[in-house]
Structures are given as C-alpha cells and as structure tokens.
C-alpha cells in the first residue's frame, strides 16, 4: 500500500515536472506571437502609411519569421540521439559486473567489452566511461542527461528554452535558431526605430499602437543583446570543435585531458557541425558529419590508437549503423 502510494506520488511528480518543463517554451512562444501581432498589425497595417514601405516590411518580416520559427521548431522537436545497441552491456557481462564487488575487476569487465567498441576517451582515473543508469559504455563525447534520463550523443547541454537536450542530432538547429532569433530581433529593432522616434517626438498621434511599437523596440533589443552573448559563445565553441560540457571539463585521452582533442582546424570544425555543402549551412536540415558515436581526433598516434590495432571492430549487433558511416567517421588524424 505504502509503495503503491509512493509510486503514484512519484508518477504525479514526474507528470508535473514534464508539464512545468514546457513553461519557458510557452513564454517564448507567447512573446513571439505578440511580436507578430504588434509588428504586422500595429506597426505595418496601422502605423506605416506608405504602401511600398508597408509591403517591403511585411515581405522581409515574414521570410525572417518563417526561418526563425522553423529553426525553433526543429530545435524543440528533434529528439537527442542515444548510443546504439552495440554499446549496451550484454546480459552475461552485466550479470558479472553487477555481482562483482571489486572495482578493479568491474573495470576489467568493461575494458574487455570496450575493446570491440570505437571508444577512445576515458574517465579521469583512466577507466572506460560507463553509464550505470543506461547500462551502456559511453561513446566519445556522450554524456548522461539527468533531465532527459538518457545518454545523449555529443551532448552539449540541456536547454530549458527549447525543453530539449542539445547534442549531435540537433546542435546545428540550435545554432541556426540562435542566429535567426538574432536576425528577427535585429530586423524588428531596425525597422521600428524610426517610428519609435516619431512617437517620442509626438509627431504621430498617441494611440494604442504607440504602446506596442515602443515595446517592440525594447523587447527586441533586450533579446538581441542576450542572444548575442550566447551565440558568440557557441561560435567560439564550434570554431574549436568543443561542446559546452567539454569547455568546462576537458575530455580525457590516453595521453591525458585535452580540451583541444577534437580540434581539427576551423574549416573542418565547422564542417563537422554544418556539413560539407556550404549551400545547406543556413538551411535547417541535418547535415552534420558522422554518426555521433565516434569522431575524428587531433594528434592521435598509431601506437596509442586502439582503433588501428587490427580488426577490433565488432561486426555483430551493428544493425543501427551502416558500414559507410563507420568507415567515414573514424578518420583519425595524425596531425592537422
Ligand atoms: Zn545514461
Ligand atoms: Zn537533456
């Protein structure tokens, strides 16, 4: 009875948590909807008198608005990717791992299993990175998100503003969302400014539109400045091929921790996220290079590289991956 109550309570709490996690998205969406109404109706249709100016403002606004909404939608609804089945600890190993009390033997069990996997980074103590909750050997750059309750490939951070985990599958969409949100704010601020001045100098009649136009300028400038810092930070990260988590805690390689372990040079770092076809860089379609499970690395010497020591790949249980992806994504750089 007691355990039944506890279960019902925890299920209720989880449900509440899930509902509340949408609050930031609802707030942003409400502000965006209001900005649409204020710009289209109160500014363009009520305040602007010149027909050509009205048409140009509305046309450009709708193009920017659609791109912004499209990227926001993709950032919210593109689910994070988790490790494939081949990273899952098999039943026999799991039994041995769970029944073993000596940590060094547990480490050995994981090390044996991980020999067949393309994992290269380790924990601070040099052990294989293993997630107890998901029972998976974590691929390089993968981390467990406690909010999502899963291991996320190339996890960057959990973003409350999109109520989603930002990682390998949606990082490009997140960056484009920041960029188009900035463009949206900048466009509104630039076109509203002259009407703000006209209201300020009382050259336009004091009506309801005044309130909306004044707020459009303040709100768009406020969001533009906040987004500028966040976008600038992520541009710096992309340029160095680092995730937010890696910027705080360097990935550990056999040679030791190295924040620049995945840095391949700016052009190739950009290609890792945006793909090789430059035309698609600004379009919110998935073009990132790789499968999210393994990544090209800088300065990896053959002698230290477990992936080049003969055929150590496990060809079983690779149903989720194509041989092409495996070949093209574990290009280990000698140098750049
Ligand atoms: Zn996990
Ligand atoms: Zn998450």
From TrEMBL:
- Chain ranges passing through the membrane: 20-39, 55-73, 173-199, 211-233
Protein name in the entry? Palmitoyltransferase
InterPro entries per the UniProt record, alphabetical: Palmitoyltrfase_DHHC, PFA4/ZDH16/20/ERF2-like
- Give me the Gene Ontology terms describing cellular component: membrane
Query: Start and end of every Palmitoyltransferase DHHC domain?
Result: 129-248
The UniProt catalytic activity note for this protein reads: L-cysteinyl-[protein] + hexadecanoyl-CoA = S-hexadecanoyl-L-cysteinyl-[protein] + CoA
| Enzyme nomenclature, EC number | 2.3.1.225
What does the sequence similarity comment in the record state about its family?
Answer: Belongs to the DHHC palmitoyltransferase family.
Q: Give UniProt keywords alphabetically.
A: Acyltransferase, Membrane, Transferase, Transmembrane, Transmembrane helix
User: Basic and acidic residues bias located where?
Assistant: 323-336
Per the record, where are the segments of Acidic residues compositional bias? Answer: 313-322
Membrane topology, as annotated, equals:
Multi-pass membrane protein
Q: Where is this region: Disordered?
A: 310-336
The enzyme class is transferase
Compartment(s) of residence:
Membrane
Primary location recorded for the protein, binned into one broad class: membrane
Tell me one GO molecular function of this protein.
protein-cysteine S-palmitoyltransferase activity
Domain-level remarks = The DHHC domain is required for palmitoyltransferase activity.
């Amino acid at each position: 009875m007691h355990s039944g109550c506890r279960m019902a309570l925890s299920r209720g709490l989880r449900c509440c948590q899930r509902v509340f996690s949408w609050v930031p998205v609802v707030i942003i969406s409400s502000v965006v909807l209001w900005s649409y109404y204020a710009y289209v109706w109160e500014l363009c249709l009520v305040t602007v008198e010149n027909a050509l100016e009205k048409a140009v403002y509305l046309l450009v606004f709708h193009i920017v608005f659609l791109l912004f909404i499209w990227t926001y939608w993709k950032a919210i609804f593109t689910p994070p990717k988790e490790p494939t089945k081949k990273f899952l600890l098999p039943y026999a190993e799991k039994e041995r791992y769970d029944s073993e009390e000596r940590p060094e033997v547990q480490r050995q069990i994981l090390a044996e299993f991980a020999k067949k996997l393309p994992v290269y980074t380790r924990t601070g103590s040099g052990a294989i990175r293993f997630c107890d909750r998901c029972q998976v050997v974590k691929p390089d750059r993968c981390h467990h998100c406690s909010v999502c309750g899963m291991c996320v490939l190339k996890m960057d951070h959990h973003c409350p503003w999109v109520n989603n985990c930002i990682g390998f599958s949606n990082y490009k969409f997140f960056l484009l969302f920041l960029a188009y949100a900035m463009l949206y704010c900048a466009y509104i601020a630039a076109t509203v400014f002259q009407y703000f001045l006209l209201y300020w100098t009382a050259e336009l009649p004091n009506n309801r539109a005044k309130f909306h136009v004044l707020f459009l300028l303040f709100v768009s400038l406020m969001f533009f400045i906040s987004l500028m810092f966040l976008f600038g930070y992520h541009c710096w990260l992309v340029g160095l091929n680092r995730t937010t988590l890696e910027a705080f805690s360097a990935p550990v390689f056999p040679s030791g921790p190295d924040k620049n372990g995945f840095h391949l040079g700016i052009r190739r770092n950009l290609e890792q996220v945006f793909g090789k076809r430059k035309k698609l860089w600004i379009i919110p379609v998935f073009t990132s290079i790789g499968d999210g499970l393994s990544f090209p690395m800088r300065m990896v010497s053959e002698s230290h590289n477990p992936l080049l020591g003969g055929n150590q790949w496990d060809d079983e249980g690779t149903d989720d991956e194509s041989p092409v992806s495996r070949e093209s994504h574990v290009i280990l750089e000698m140098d750049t």
